[in-house]
Amino acid sequence: MPKANLPAVGKPKRMQTFAEYQAMVEQTDERKKMLVSLLGLVAELGDINATFKKLFLQHSPTLRTDLREDLGDILWYLTSLGVLYKIPLIEIARESARKAERLYSQGEVNQFDERFADEERLPRQFSVEFSETRNGSRVLVRIMVNDVIIGDVLTDNAHKDDGYRYHDVFHLAYAAVLGWSPVVRSLLRRKRKSDAHIDEVEDGGRASVVEEAISIVVFNEAGQRGWFKDESSVDIGLLKTIIRLTKGLEVQRCTAKQWKAAILQGYAAFNELRSHRGGRVDADLDRQRLTYSARVGNKGAP
Questions:
Q1: Rounded-to-integer distance, Cα 73 and Cα 75, Å
Q2: Residue 48, in any domain of the structure
Q3: Does residue 38 sit in the same domain as residue 171?
Q4: Range of the domain at 89
Q5: Which of 44, 137, 182, 214 has its CA 20 to 30 A from that of 58?
Q6: Could you tell me if 144 and 234 lie in one domain?
């Protein structure tokens, strides 16, 4: 890292803010060239790698001192890049914190419709029955709430049987875990029509298309990921894709961990529905849970 080009007299000023540190970096960066800062950063990353390599090979009594220096040099070069592109360090820190919270915090129970009347709110608990029937070689699935058929009768819409006829269970998982699903709102006739803007933006066609897109993107990965039977099968790359797709919608408040839970619970129920060729799914929005229950005497389609 470059030496500080500061007067040698007097006591060094104690840094108290990101702005003060960034001003110091701008003052001490004599080159002010992107390539120099980038190459310097790469070199310092190599130094910290060497520090830990030494630790693995032998005890290092100076580890904390060495690590503090290495991390300080990395911070200097990162900040110099921020200076060059006029990005305040505090903005970088805040955006990093927002991203970390969105990706890794547990999140909270969401009630996006809390201020609306009961008839425009998703039920906090409800059950959905899935049943299979056959029409020649076609396998059909219908869903019912309180013995009333909702939505269209679905097929896989595919050349081979992959179970996608049960994909409404994914929307139920989003509703249960995230408190969000324009598709479920439409099926249950719980759209927030009293607020025209919310009805258009959050409960309208575009939001429903986003939700369906997430459903098919995840489904297209499912076969290669063991149908999401293991927690590790839902990786951060897939979750980041989902978060990008939901930008600008109320559901962007939900964290990656909540999306992961929604995917895992949705596929746990999906796998049971396929195996038993139907059944009941219970959604509990207060507990953020979606659970499967096989129907008594359910033997599938004739």
A1: 5
A2: yes
A3: no
A4: 18-104
A5: 44
A6: yes
Residues in the chain: 302
Paired tokens of 224: 């290669």
Q: Which of 104, 134, 163 is the last residue of a domain?
A: 104
Give, for all 302 residues of the chain, the pLDDT tens digit: 654 444 444 556 777 899 999 999 999 998 899 999 999 999 988 888 888 887 777 777 888 888 899 999 999 999 999 999 999 999 999 988 877 777 777 778 999 999 999 999 999 999 999 999 888 778 899 999 988 889 888 888 888 889 999 999 999 999 999 999 999 999 999 999 999 999 999 999 999 999 999 999 999 999 999 999 999 999 999 999 999 999 999 999 999 999 999 999 999 999 999 999 999 999 999 999 999 987 644 444 33
CB atoms within 10 A of CB 167: 21
Token pair, residue 248, equals 């600008």
Are 99 and 166 members of one domain? no
* 59 close to 37: Cβ distance less than 8 angstroms: no
Same domain, 186 and 97: no
Q: Determine the number of helices (DSSP H) and then strands (DSSP E) in the chain.
A: 10, 5
Helices (H), 180-289: 182-187, 196-201, 205-222, 236-245, 256-276
Q: Are residues 175 and 42 in the same domain?
A: no
> Taking the CA of residue 58 as centre, how many other CA atoms within 13 Å lie in the half-sphere pointing to its CB?
5
φ, ψ (nearest 5 deg) of residue 144: -135, 145
Task: Describe the strand order of the beta sheet including 125-135 as a list of residue ranges.
Answer: 148-154, 138-145, 125-135, 278-284, 289-293
User: By the 8 A CB rule, do 227 and 267 touch?
Assistant: yes
